[in-house]
């Protein structure tokens, strides 16, 4: 039986940094090994940062059973679950349902692809969930998806029949939120690290302490290694 320390939960979707299995859109600009190493740095920085959220239980939801050993070794103190469902929507819906069944009442789901997202953005999400019983918070991504979704009760219609591979995920989700007639709070738009241009943007943003630059030690070191190896030179230049 799990011990619930807070009625607030942060569900973190993650997977082990296996070359060729993570950050594949960064390939071939950087190698599968370097893409996996960069993603690993996001994990090693983002999860401890999430753990600093006051009064929030961090829960790891892993893509497959084969990911468990990696996270057990590095984050033994964090509860680990395996995602269930065929589609991303089904997996998110199941994660929310499980968290609510374990007596969490304010639940936000995030990933590990946006290391510069200010922690205060997630804190704002919990403040909104505290203030309104029918609140839903959503953080739009620049690629048309969303990087965060939070609620106080499950709404299955937000996850069913959405094509998560298309850049209309956020737009479609907002339409469904309007139909639900709930209190919707939109968090600041942010970006995931999915393309080579995103890496260059990250390299610049790491100089800004307001964007977690001072605490993203693994990510900063990895970016510096890539730069020192001339792997961040723009292709064709």
Structure description:
With 237 residues, the chain is α/β, with parallel strands linked by helices. The protein has a single domain, classed as Spore Coat Polysaccharide Biosynthesis Protein SpsA, Chain A, CATH 3.90.550.10. The protein contains 7 helices and 7 strands, in the order βαβαβαβαββαβαα. It has a 7-stranded mixed sheet, with helices on both faces. Helix 1 (32-50) runs antiparallel to helix 7. It is globular, with a radius of gyration of 18 Å. The relative contact order is 0.16. The mean pLDDT is 94.
Shape: globular
How many strands? Answer: 7
* Biggest sheet character: 7 strands, mixed
CATH C-level class is: Alpha Beta
* Structure class: alpha/beta
Give me the side-by-side strand order of the main sheet: 3-2-1-4-6-5-7
Gyration radius, rounded: 18 Å
- Architecture, CATH level 2? Alpha-Beta Complex
Report the portion of residues in β strands.
15-25%
Unreliable stretches, pLDDT < 50, 5 or more residues? none
Q: CATH superfamily name? A: Spore Coat Polysaccharide Biosynthesis Protein SpsA, Chain A
- What is the succession of H and E elements? EHEHEHEHEEHEHH
CATH topology type = Spore Coat Polysaccharide Biosynthesis Protein SpsA, Chain A
Look at the structure and give the mean pLDDT: 94
Please give the domain count. Answer: 1
- What is the CA–CA distance across the termini? 57 Å
Total helices: the number is 7
Helix content: 25-40%
């Amino acid at each position: 039986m799990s011990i619930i320390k807070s009625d607030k939960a942060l569900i973190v979707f993650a997977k082990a940094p296996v070359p060729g299995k993570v950050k594949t859109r960064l390939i071939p600009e950087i190698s599968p090994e370097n893409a996996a190493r960069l993603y690993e740095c996001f994990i090693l920085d983002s999860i401890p940062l999430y753990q600093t959220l006051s009064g929030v239980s961090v829960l790891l939801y892993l893509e497959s059973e084969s990911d468990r050993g990696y996270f057990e070794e590095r984050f033994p103190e964090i509860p680990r679950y395996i995602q269930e469902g065929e589609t991303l929507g089904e997996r998110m819906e199941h994660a929310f349902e499980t968290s609510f069944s374990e007596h969490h009442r304010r639940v936000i789901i995030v990933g590990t692809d946006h290391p510069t997202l200010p922690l205060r953005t997630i804190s704002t999400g919990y403040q909104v969930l505290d203030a309104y019983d029918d609140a839903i918070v959503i953080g739009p991504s620049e690629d048309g998806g969303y990087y965060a979704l939070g609620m106080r009760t499950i709404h299955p219609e937000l996850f069913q029949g959405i094509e998560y591979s298309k850049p209309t995920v956020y737009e479609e989700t907002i339409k469904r939120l309007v139909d639900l007639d709930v209190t919707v709070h939109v968090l600041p738009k942010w970006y995931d690290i999915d393309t080579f241009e995103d890496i260059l943007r990250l390299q610049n943003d790491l100089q800004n302490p307001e964007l977690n630059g001072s605490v993203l030690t693994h990510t900063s070191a990895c970016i510096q290694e890539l730069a020192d190896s001339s792997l961040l030179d723009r292709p064709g230049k």
